[in-house]
Amino acid sequence: MPRASTTSDAFNAVAEPRRRAILSFLAPQERPVGDIVMALGFEQPSVSKHLRVLKDVGLVTARRDGRNMLYRTEAQALRPLHDWIRTFERLWTHQLNRIKERAEQAERAEKDNRQ
Predict the structure, then answer these.
(1) Given this model, what pLDDT does residue 5 score?
(2) Which residues, in sequence order, are bridge partners of residue 31?
(3) Torsional sign, CA 53, 35, 66, 29
(4) What ranges make up the beta strands (E) of the chain?
(5) In degrees rounded to 5, what are phi and psi of residue 102?
């Protein structure tokens, strides 16, 4: 089955590590492309390309401020990703609880054997 275009949805867009880095960098506040280039060390054309993909799927928005375009992460657009990941968070929490229980049982058994 062919892979979906990276511009088709948020899941495909964030599959690329540089896009995730850009989203993380933009999370605290909006920034111009130049700040992203300087902070992340990516080439400007690459940043622009990735911002375009992120913008096309709604994960970032842009606004003009004089000559600069300022980009910011759109938290609401990340909601489907967050909801999907929560499924696995519950799975891992369950698994970690099981590991903790086994470790505690082993510790109790070891303590009983020493007595």
Answers:
(1) 53
(2) 71
(3) positive
(4) 31-32, 60-65, 68-73
(5) -65, -40
